[in-house]
Amino acid sequence: MAFIVWNPSISVGIDSIDAQHKKLIGLVNDLADAMKDGKSKEVLAKVFGGLVEYTKEHFAFEESLFRQHGYGDKEEHVRQHTELAKQALGLKKDFESGKAAVSMETLKFLNAWLIDHIQGSDKKYAPHLIQKGVR
Ligand SMILES: [Fe+2]
Ligand SMILES: [Fe+2]
Predict the structure, then answer these.
(1) What whole-number percentage of the chain has pLDDT above 90?
(2) Predicted local confidence at residue 1, as pLDDT
(3) What's the number of domains the chain is made of?
(4) What does the alpha-carbon distance between residue 32 and residue 10 come to, in Å, rounded to a whole number?
(5) Which residues, by Cβ under 5 Å, contact ligand 1, an ion?
(6) Is 1 exposed, middle or buried, given 0-12, 13-18 or 19+ CB atoms closer than 10 A?
(7) pLDDT score, position 113
(8) What would the pLDDT profile of 30-71 be if each residue is shown by its tens digit?
(9) Separation of 117 CA from ligand 2 center, angstroms?
(10) Relative to the alpha carbon of 114, which ligand is closest?
């Protein structure tokens, strides 16, 4: 069973964003699977790298929408993105340097890292962007 299961309560009501969030959830699930299957460090590092890269892409996409549509809380949201990206990169580096393993703790952290941001912050910009015609 997947580690994080998509459900309607995660939806922000914008298809393009939901699709990207689904992909992020998929990448955390890939990492969970790789860990459970006892994959090699190289494989785990690659999956982790993919998650960090796609996170950057997704944040940049949201931030470009904020600029395009003049979202008032842009600064605070971007600050959160910077912090979240730093945390994910930190975990990946700790793993690569052998300082930490990918553990259940890592996965629980990434679950909260992703879902709390979507529920707590992404949902706040949704009404503004929907009103501007973003789908
Ligand atoms: Fe997001
Ligand atoms: Fe966001």
Answers:
(1) 99
(2) 82
(3) 1
(4) 19
(5) 122
(6) exposed
(7) 98
(8) 999 999 999 999 999 999 999 999 999 999 999 999 999 999
(9) 6
(10) 1
What pLDDT is recorded for position 119? 97
Kindly state whether residue 105 falls inside one of the protein's structural domains. Answer: yes
Give me the count of residues in the chain: 135
Residue 53 structure tokens: 């890269």
- CATH number assigned to the domain comprising residue 82: 1.20.120.50
> Which letter does DSSP use for residue 37 in this model?
T
**108/38 Cα distance (integer angstroms):** 18
Domain that holds residue 90: 15-131
Q: How far apart are CA 92 and CA 90, in angstroms?
A: 5
In a domain, 34, yes or no: yes
How many angstroms separate the alpha carbon of residue 59 from the centre of ligand 2? 6
Q: Does a structural domain hold residue 1?
A: no
Q: d(Cα 58, Cα 56) in Å, to the nearest integer? A: 5
Q: What pTM was computed for the model? A: 0.97
